[in-house]
Amino acid sequence: MEYHGLLTRYGALLDLPEHTQTVSLHEGNTPLIPVPRLAEEMGGGFELFVKYEGLNPTGSFKDRGMTAAIGEAAGRKAQAVICASTGNTAASAAAYAARAGLRAIVLIPQGKVAAGKLAGAVAYGAQVVQIDGSFDDALTLVVKITEKHPIALVNSINPYRLEGQKTGAFEICDTLGKAPDWLCLPVGNAGNISAYWLGFRQYNEEKSTGLPKLLGVQAAGAAPLVLGHPIDKPSTVATAIRIGRPARGEQALTAAEESGGRIIAATDDEILAMQRRLAGEGIWVEPASAAGLAGLEKEINAGTLDPTGKQIVAVCTGHGLKDPDIITANMPKPELVPTSLEALEEVILAQ
Ligand code: F0G
Questions:
Q1: 66, 106 contact by CB (below 8 A)
Q2: Rounded distance, CA 345 to CA 351, Å?
Q3: Rounded CA gap, 218 and 349, in Å?
Q4: Is the dihedral of CA 70, 23, 99, 60 positive or negative?
Q5: Class of domain 62-157
Q6: Which residues lie across from 218 on neighbouring strands?
Q7: Ligand 1 pocket member 136 (CB < 6 A)
Q8: Would you list the domain boundaries of the chain?
Q9: Distance separating alpha carbons of residues 306 and 327, to the nearest angstrom
Q10: From ligand 1's centre to the CA of 167, what distance in Å?
C-alpha cells in the first residue's frame, strides 16, 4: 500500500481539531530492527529490537509530533510557529513549517546544539535565535512570547505534538502484533515517554494489545526526574537531553510508575559506549538515542530487570548524522597513502 504519512494512516485515532490540515513529509513507518547479537551480549534469552526513529524525514522522532502540531497551526491560519530546542525539534519545526508555508522561529541554547541539527534548521529556512542560556530558559521565553503574540508554540507542551507522537506506540504494536514487555527510551523534556504511554494505553483499550513497562533513561548530569529536583546547570555529552526542568516531568513519572517501570540515569561514558556498540550493528544514532539501551543494560547487569523470555524495544530517537562531531573530534585522521597499488597493498594487507 502506498504510504502517505502518519495523519493519513493513523489520523482517525488522534485527538486533533477538525481544522487540522495534512502537512506531511511521509514521516513515520520507521523500521523495527532486530538486534540479536546485542541481546546476546547483554546475556541473551530475550528478543531485542531497535525502533530506528533516525529514519524520519528530518532525522528524528520529532517529525511524528510536528506533522500534527504544524498541521493544526496551519489549519487555524497561524502565520508563524516557534519552539525552544536542543536541536531536533528546531529542525523538524523548520521543515514542517516550510512544507506548510509558515514562518518558523527557533530558540536554541548557546553553543550546545549539534552541527547537523543547526544546519537542518538553517537549511529549512527557520530564523535561528541563540540565547545565552539553557534549553529551559529558552522554553520559558517561548511560552511567554506566545502568550503575548499570535505565534503558535510547537514544543511538546502543545498537546497535538503528543497526539502525533503516540503513533510510535501504534506502529510498534502493529509490527509485533502486541505491545512489547519493555520499552526503553531516552528522556529529556519528557514529551516522548508521555506520548508513548498515551499511545500504548489507547491501543490496549481499542485492540487489547497489552501494555509495556517503561524504562525512561536520562543522562546522569541532566537527571532531574531521577534526583527529584530541577537541575540548574544540566550537563551531558548527549546534548539532545541536556534539560534540567522537563516540561512534562510529572506526566512522565506517572507514566513510568503506572506501567510498572521507572526512570533511571546513565552516565555519559555508558551512553557513548552504547552508541559505539549500536554503530557496530550498523545502526548509527546520536548519543542521546543510545541512552535507552545503555539504561537497559545497566538494569540487566544490576539484576533489577530480568529480560528472560521478554520482547524489548529500544526507541533510538535520532540519527547519528545529527552529531558528527562527537565521532570526528576524537578520530585519528585517515591514513594518507600514495596513489599506487603497492602502497595500498602495504597498508591494508599489513593489518
Ligand atoms: N532523543 C533525542 C534525539 C531528542 O532530540 C530528544 C529531545 C529526546 C530524545 C528526548 O525526548 O524531550 O520528548 O523527552 N529533544 C528536544 C529537542 C528537547 O529540542 O529537540 P523528550
A1: no
A2: 10
A3: 44
A4: positive
A5: alpha beta
A6: 265
A7: no
A8: 6-59+161-322, 62-157
A9: 33
A10: 16
Question: Among 1-15, 53-67, 96-110, which stretch is predicted with the lowest mean pLDDT?
Answer: 1-15
pTM higher than 0.90: yes
- Confidence category of residue 1, pLDDT binned at 50, 70, 90: low
Instruction: Return the bridge partners of 33, or none.
Output: 50
**Which one, of 214, 268, 221, lies nearest residue 243 by Cα?**
221
The per-residue DSSP string of 10-61 comes to: HGGGS---TT-----S------EEE-HHHHHHTT-SSEEEEEEGGGSTTSBT
HSE of 100, CA atoms in CB hemisphere, 13 A: 31
Q: Which of 156, 166, 241 to mutate to test the pocket of ligand 1 (most atoms within 8 A of CB)?
A: 241
Query: For residue 140, what are the contacts with CB-CB under 8 A and spacing of at least 6?
Result: none
Domain 6-59+161-322 sits in CATH at: 3.40.50.1100
The H or E element containing residue 129 is: strand 127-131
Q: Is 272 in the pocket of ligand 1 (CB under 6 A)?
A: no
pLDDT in tens, 18-32: 999 999 999 999 999
